[in-house]
Amino acid sequence: MLKTMNRKISVVLILFSAGYLYLSYNLKEYPYVPVDSDLVPKALGFVLIGLAVLLFFDKSSEEEGEKKKRTVPKKEIGVMAAVGGMIFIYILLFEVIGFLLATALFIFFCSWFLGYDKWVSNVLVSLIFPSALYYLFNYLLQIRLPQGILPF
């Protein structure tokens, strides 16, 4: 049954998403909000289960080329660890300095670290994208994101 790596991974993903869905069904419901806090987690959980089932029934065979694709070069491990560290710092700063600043700094420094050299477009994307998301969540969906040190 679990002959290929895709099937093994899909079983793990199905178990993970089942636990995730269990926890998302235990989220507190709020009676007077237009979009409840459990909508997105439930949708993501069901999408993950669906994709894991599709992965389980994937007919692609595992060839030698596929096994080589899974091998990560040693120099890439340092890059992945650095990006993981940036994600950890982002999580730590998220509540302290707020969504807008933490996300802008994360996008800017992560894309710069990964080799994107166009400073103007990097600055514009790292400012416009989090601002649009902040406006969407806070004012249109009325889901409050951490404002941090900013007054709005």
UniProtKB/TrEMBL annotation:
It comes from the Bacteria. Residues 9-146 form the DUF1468 domain. Pfam families: TctB. The chain crosses the membrane at residues 9-27, 39-57, 77-107, 119-137. This is Tripartite tricarboxylate transporter TctB family protein. Keywords: Membrane, Transmembrane, Transmembrane helix. It comes from Halobacillus yeomjeoni. InterPro entries: DUF1468 (IPR009936).
